[in-house]
Amino acid sequence: MSRAEPLRGTITVPGDKSISHRAALVGALSREGIEVDHFSNGADCASTLDCLRRLGVAVEREGDRVRVRRNGPLAEGGLLDAGNSGTTARLLCGLLSGIPGVFSVITGDASLRRRPMSRVVDPLRTLGARIDGCDGGTKLPLSVRGTRLTGGLYTLPMASAQVKSALLLAGLSAQGSVTVVEPRRSRDHTEIMLDYLGVPLKREGEAVAVFPCDDLPGGRWTLPGDFSSAAFWIVAASLLAGSDLSIEGVNLNPTRTGLLAVLERMGLDCDVLPGNPSGGEPTGTVTVRSSSLKATAVDGTEIPLLVDELPLLAVAATQARGVTEVRGAAELRVKESDRIAAMAEGLSALGAAVEERPDGWVIEGGHPLKGGAVSSRGDHRVAMALAVAGLVAEGEVLIDDVDCVAISYPGFLDELRRRTGR
Ligand code: S3P
Predict the structure, then answer these.
(1) Which of 158, 223, 307, 335 to mutate to test the pocket of ligand 1 (most atoms within 8 A of CB)?
(2) Catalytic positions (predicted)?
(3) Using CB atoms within 10 A as the burial measure, which of 106, 125, 221, 331 is most buried?
């Protein structure tokens, strides 16, 4: 089989998925509404828009330009299908639990119905939310009967941007302020967006407070490229000899770019050129050249900053000199799939030396990868990470169920084939 061509030139990636969800949800609480360019083209964000339409929110989409505005009071949503999207289910649960008179049932696909929901349901109930659901409200479908919530302070047991954001969105229609304290900072796009739009907000260390706000101000801006999508190109370019690739207009929010810090420690040859902020988020161009990587250790303190990039880090670790250890990442077991098991199984099938641990992996780098059949487990990030592994495998790598890539990055596999010839 022919070798993959080096990655050269420039590339842009789809709009940030986390920020797209938030822009749509914030727009739904604003009569003026939001208008954003470069909205994510993934299926997850389309699920958020569909749910909002069912709630009577005005949603217009032309290509990657999306307008969302509140069109009178929210309607009874009936059955809201979040598809595969944890962010849709959890953030909507927060937003809807504080809107009196609106009753909805939130559900999702088989993967999402297995994922834990008590992490949002429990704190929302402490504010008075009336939520019920499968397994005592720990799983979807969840019924949400919107009610006037009290304010309060909630200390999260884990760093989770989804839980934090669900509480902040609920707080916008509560009777008093809602304060959320995290053990470690998770992605802070909700805080940045509310602040950018001029919604009163107080941040102090890892605590953030929002205040009741009947009608949010609107705004118009362009969303940055998704760092989590750029990450596949960053690792691919680092692994392919002769590569020199620039990814333009990427979100460089430090709560998202933990992978860059870890890869730099591993010897990544890269430059970061800051650009203009967009919607309060730092952006820029990341240029990556092929690199000779060495092993590193990643523990729980760094995990929230690269949680979605860990499958990809596992791929990079198979090509690094020495033994890489990832700890404190048990959260990966309850993502779209059990990502610890999925990557251990997939990479081992390709000849890598991966030991699965309850909360991560121990990966001995330097074993050449061979071809083989592997499973994405229907998980977009696993599918794309295994496709990157396939670039450096000696034989052909066959990944099942690759359509799931459309959850976050519909054009990825075509673009990868076009640029690398594999
Ligand atoms: C997200 C937060 C993260 C991340 C997910 C998107 C968000 O989840 O894994 O893909 O948009 O808030 P947690 O907050 O549960 O860690």
Answers:
(1) 307
(2) 308 (proton acceptor)
(3) 106
> Same structural domain for residues 199 and 233?
no
What CATH number should be reported for the domain holding residue 391? Answer: 3.65.10.10
pLDDT at 101: 92
Identify the residues whose C-beta falls under 6 Å from ligand 1.
18, 87, 160-162, 165, 186-187, 307-308
Range of the domain at 333: 8-14+224-420
357 and 409 inside one domain:
yes
Cβ-contact 419, 377 below 8 angstroms = no
Domain boundary among 181, 210, 239: 210
Phi, psi of 23 (to 5 degrees): -60, -40
CA of 78 to the centre of ligand 1 (A): 25
In one-letter notation, the amino acid at residue 420 is: T
Angstrom distance (rounded) from CA 109 to CA 141: 10
Residue 215 lies in a domain: no
pLDDT value at residue 78: 87
Q: How far is residue 122's CA from residue 99's CA, in Å, rounded to a whole number?
A: 18
Specify the DSSP class assigned to residue 293.
-
CA of 17 to the centre of ligand 1 (A): 10
Set 308, 338, 359, 400: catalytic member: 308
Residues 237 and 328 in one domain: yes
Instruction: Confirm whether 405 is domain-assigned.
Output: yes
Helix (H, G, I), strand (E, B) or coil at 246: strand
Say yes or no: 141 and 185 in one domain.
Answer: yes
Task: Give residue 2's pLDDT.
Answer: 67
Closest CA relative to residue 45, chosen from 31, 59, 30, 58 = 59
Q: Is the confidence at residue 37, as pLDDT, over 80? A: yes
Tell whether 228 and 168 lie within a shared domain: no
Examine the pLDDT at 1 and tell me if it is beyond 70. Answer: no
CB burial of residue 6 (10 Å; 0-12, 13-18, 19+): middle
CB-facing half-sphere around the CA of 377: CA atoms within 13 A = 21
